Amino acid sequence: MAEATGNQDAKDYGIGIPQKSEGYFLKGNAHVDWGIKDRLSRIFNPKSGRTVMLAFDHGYIMGPTSGLERMDLTIVPLIPYADCIMCTRGALRQIVPPTSNKPISLRYSAGSTVLTDLNDECVMSIEEAVRLNASMLAIMVAIGCKKFEADTVRTLTKTIDEGARFGIPTLGVTAVGKELVRDARYLGLATRVCAENGAHVIKTYHCKPDFEKIVAACPVPIVIAGGKKLPELEALQMAYEAIDQGAAGVDMGRNVFQAEHPVAMIQAVRAVVHDNKKPKDAFDLYQTLKNKS
Ligand code: 5RP
Predict the structure, then answer these.
(1) pLDDT-based confidence at 179, cuts 50/70/90?
(2) Catalytic site residue 11?
(3) CATH number at residue 88
(4) Most CB contacts within 10 A, which of 5, 124, 126, 244?
(5) DSSP-assigned beta bridge partners for residue 24
(6) How far is the CA of 253 from the centre of ligand 1 (A)?
(7) Residue tagged active-site, from 11, 37, 102, 203
């Protein structure tokens, strides 16, 4: 406890030394509140500005997806290799050990499933996200979806407002319906709409050609989803191209947990994202780790 008497006089004022004022390493987020920056700094490595997020929220629309039937057996061993985990609140409470100490990108919106029309979604309460210590709130945004486009943008807007009250950033996830093409024109529009509405980070798909134009025109960081399972070398190639073209990381699910050896695959993805490994070298690492175990 501070004493009322006998204290040393304050004398180290650093007169003449300007107070340091650091910039912020993630684009488009220099002027957000301290709590949001702190949470983003847990998700993205402040040195590289990159992240490897592990997505396993698929069950909320798809049920027991291949590789996610027993998440306690398949996902828990991958968590130590992820910079951030993206999952539902159900999965979090049911299988993620609270001792994992990983930032959580919480699937914050929910609604219809693959059995009906996707993207008819509502959000949970912000108190629940705070209770779960979420580091980011993930919202599906269905730009171009005739039925639910405006609803999902409303959901995004509401979430950004609610999250800001508690210093929690929002991830805009560009949903792609069956009728929409994953080209640069569409993805460029969808990512920009999310950013203009205030999303702090955007998750979208890699596309060819012109992914670098999507990144350039998106004023906040982009992470890519992996999409459907590809052969491991192709998935590493996709991650490499995305990073090379300016993505700030990956938020991959199926291409990790459906790989022949998921623990080796997530380490190979890390080598691409954090160590700038070429796809072939990362694939060699994958083979070596796979054979070792
Ligand atoms: C859809 C999602 C998934 O988390 C996303 O698609 C990532 O998974 P994958 O790499 O398997 O595409 O946002 O709800």
Answers:
(1) confident
(2) no
(3) 3.20.20.70
(4) 126
(5) none
(6) 6
(7) 203
